[in-house]
Amino acid sequence: NSWNTGNILNSSDNGDAGGIAGYTSGSIRYCFNTGEISHATKGGGIAGNNASRSHLSNCYNAGYIHTSNTGTTIGGLGGGNGSVTNSYNTGTVCADGDNSTAGGLVYNTWQSFDSHGNRSGSRVENSYNAGSVCATGTGCALGNIAASYNYSDASGLFRNCYYLEDMLHGE
pTM of whole model > 0.85? Predict the structure, then answer.
């Protein structure tokens, strides 16, 4: 049970910044952010970098997440590629630097299978984005839930996820 209402500025313009944690490889539950998160290489309302096996659950972001740095990854909840469950974003997420990605909830989701068919990866479930997402630099990617994902069948990555139409703005 954590929350952040203050603004977080990454003054070095190079690093991870989030409302609750800059970086996590574990679980963060029952938390919210309403503060502004700015100028991170990886940034999110809850975790700046929610690493690949991390899990954000029962969290929400209503803060403004933005950066003008080149090559950044940001999301309403996390700027990494961990899993998200029972969470939502209503804040604006905006990446203005070239070759950057902006996702309504997370930067990326992924999955892979070993030779025995066992799955590993991340997933977004029972979550929604109602915030605006923009990416205005050249070579940028943006998405309502995730800015990118690496599997051709998104049904394994997204379950019961929703977003408002016409909330994507950019190149």
Answer: yes
